[in-house]
Amino acid sequence: DRDTDKKRIEELLEENMVLEIAQKQSMNESAHLGWELEQLSKSTDLADSKKSFVFELNECASSRILKLEKDNQSLQNTIQELRDASLNSRESSLKFVELEKENQQLSKKIEKLQNQIEKEKQSNQDLETLSEELIKDKEQLQVVMETLKADKDRQIKDLKQENDHL
């Protein structure tokens, strides 16, 4: 009986050591999962700050577009006034040539402003696309984080049950 008890004790001690090693590994995995969760939450915070930055850029670009459109309208009015003035006044042909040059310069400025407006609109669209991608990434990270939390909780529960069983 004593020999049988000794063998049984040795087996139990051996099994206990294996379980302790498994528990340590599980604890290490849990710590690693916790670290990963922390990293994911940090990247989620980073995505939030990128998102707010994108919205600020959108607002800035929109105000710039409005300003450029106002400048464009003002220049078109000036061109029209110059045309009217050139038609109404019968000054020397030199004055007319100067007005035409000024008109051409203003037309070039208008064209540049329109190009800038188009670029700003494209930039706005790009920023909106980036914002949508960042929001999608954030949602994916949240799903991964919830999955990791569920796995961690399940592992902890399993380890507690094993521990209680032991």
Helix amount, in percent? over 70%
DSSP strand content: under 5%
If helices are DSSP runs of H or I spanning 4 or more residues, what is the number of helices?
A: 2
- Whole-number average pLDDT? 82
Report the radius of gyration as a whole number of Å.
36 Å
Question: What structural class do the secondary elements suggest?
Answer: mainly alpha
Please identify the oligomeric state.
Answer: single chain
What are the secondary-structure elements, in order, as H or E? HH
Overall geometry comes to rod-shaped
First-to-last CA distance: 24 Å
Number of E strands: 0
Major beta sheet, specifics? none
Low-confidence stretches: none
What this model shows, in words?
The structure is a single chain. By secondary structure, the chain is mainly α. The protein has helices spanning 2-88, 93-165. Helix 1 packs antiparallel against helix 2. It is rod-shaped, with a radius of gyration of 36 Å. This is DAPLE protein. One of its GO terms (molecular function) is dynein light intermediate chain binding.
